[in-house]
C-alpha cells in the first residue's frame, strides 16, 4: 500500500489514546507536545510512576476504565495501544464508521493512518518512510545522517 504523507495540525483537536503502556506513553507525550487541545487516556490499570509524569501535562486527562464507543464522540484522532486484539479491531471499526483517523499500534491492517519512526531535533522532525526496513540504509543510519547533517541552530532547517 502507498501512504499519503501528512502532517496534522492538532491545535483545537481532541485526541484519544487507549492503552497507556510504554508505547502508549510515547504516543500521549507526542500528541501533547504537538499541541493537541485534549488527550484523553484510557487504561484499565492504575498509572505507574513513569506514566504520572506524562499525565501531568496540561492537555492530558486520564481515566482508569475500559473503552466505550461514546469515548469517540468529538475525537479527531484515536490511537489504540493495547494487547487486546478484539478491542483493537472494535476501536478500528468504530473509528472507520465515524470517519475518525485511527492508528492501532504496530497493526497497519487496522489503521487509517500510520506513524513513522520520528527523529526530532529542535523544530525539525524527520520521519522514516514506511517500508524503510528493506532499504539498504536502515533508519539508524538515516537518523545518524540527520544528527550530523543538520545543526540544531541552522535557521533554514528549524524555522
State the helical fraction. 25-40%
Count of distinct strands: 7
Uncertain ranges: 154-159
Mean residue pLDDT:
84
> What's the alpha carbon Rg, rounded to whole Å?
17 Å
**CATH-assigned homologous superfamily of the largest domain:** NAD(P)-binding Rossmann-like Domain
Structural class: alpha/beta
**What is the fold-level CATH name, i.e. the topology of the largest domain?**
Rossmann fold
Percent of sequence in beta strands: 15-25%
Number of domains: 2
- Tell me the strand order in the biggest sheet: 3-2-1-4-5
Question: Under the CATH scheme, which class of the largest domain?
Answer: Alpha Beta
Number of helices: 5
The CATH architecture of the largest domain comes to: 3-Layer(aba) Sandwich
Taking the sheet with the most strands, its summary is: 5 strands, parallel
Distance between the termini: 32 Å
SSE string, helix = H, strand = E? EHEHEEHEEEHH
Approximate shape: globular
